[in-house]
Amino acid sequence: MPLLFSYGTLQQENVQLSTLGRRLNGQRDELPGFEQSSVRIEDPQIVAASGKTHHANVKFNGNESSCVSGMVFEITDAELARVDEYEVAFNYERLSAPLASGRQAWVYVHGHRRKDRPAIIAPPPLLTVVCFAAGFIAAHFKPIPIFHGAPWVRITLSVALVLLVAFIIFSGRQELVKHHEHPNPYRPTETIVDSGIYRFTRNPLYIGMLLFVLAVGIGANEAWLFVSLVALFLLLHFGVVKAEEKYLSEKFGSRYEQYRSSVRRWI
Fold first, then answer.
1. Distance from C-alpha of 235 to C-alpha of 240, rounded to nearest angstrom
2. Which of 19, 50, 179, 210 is deepest in the core (most CB within 10 A)?
């Protein structure tokens, strides 16, 4: 059952009864990385009915020492949908956030909030294509072969690496689908996938991209593609993976930190 963190009126029994039709049993908890704020109520009818001029709100500040106190309730999916209807009417958005207790809960925040995605520099497939293109362009003007032996050896190795890449990427994507996740870094992550191939590496899809560049570099016998490989690794490491780790750590807290400490970033 989903957990819902409330820092406002849902902690009141009369609001629970009017919204969900029952009293909720909750536990005290805190929402780290946020601070309290308020939102002015523009509708005069709501002001008259509630006797309040502002709604309670929280604002993300990223400061781990800053916490908002409240109650965490276990509710049903149907009840969560009813709370959605109530909160959306006042322009509140629901997001998933780690609590001080280590649990993951839904919380409602008014208006614009931080983007629920990592601040990566560019889509990883685009980075791969750009590095590929740069390597091939450089090779066109000044080819630099590396291997001088029988071509069947490097072709065999290249094909074997491509097959390995296909297995890694297929396994990684299938595991994401199994957990209703996706490889698109511009969409929110809702759960930590730590099964299947993700038990051995946290970034199998990016490893697949790097191995594919390596495979083509060996098959084409071109040193510039090895330069592209190094460039792609640096772009993925500092421009994508680091940003994703920061995002997941802020969103899932100790749950992600435990996974990060037990599984390697690469290999």
1. 7
2. 210
Q: What angle do CA 81, 118, 237 make, to 5 degrees?
A: 150
More confident position, 57 or 73:
73
Domains of the chain and any CATH numbers = 3-110 (3.10.490.10), 124-262 (no CATH)
Q: Say if CB 47 and CB 53 are below 8 A apart.
A: yes
List b or e across 198-220, with b for residues whose CB sees 16 or more CB atoms inside 10 angstroms: beebbbbbbbbbbbbbbbbbbbb
Distance CA 176, CA 178 (A): 5
Above 70 in pLDDT, residue 172? Answer: yes
151 phi, psi to nearest 5 deg: -65, -25
Q: Is 190 helix (H, G, I), strand (E, B) or coil?
A: coil
pLDDT at 83 over 60: yes
Q: Where are the beta strands (DSSP E) in 7-103?
A: 26-32, 34-40, 54-60, 67-74, 92-98
Rounded CA-CA distance 38/35 in Å is: 10
Stated as kind and residue range, the H or E segment containing 49 is helix 44-50
Describe the strand order of the beta sheet including 3-6 as a list of residue ranges: 26-32, 67-74, 3-6, 104-110, 92-98
Query: Higher confidence at residue 240 or residue 81?
Result: 240
**Gap between the Cα atoms of 144 and 195, Å rounded:** 42
96: which strand partners?
Answer: 106
CB 29 within 8 A of CB 4: no
What are the Cα distances from residue 89, in Å, to 2, 4, 84, 86?
21, 18, 8, 6
Could you give the CA distance from residue 199 to residue 175 in angstroms, rounded to a whole number? 11
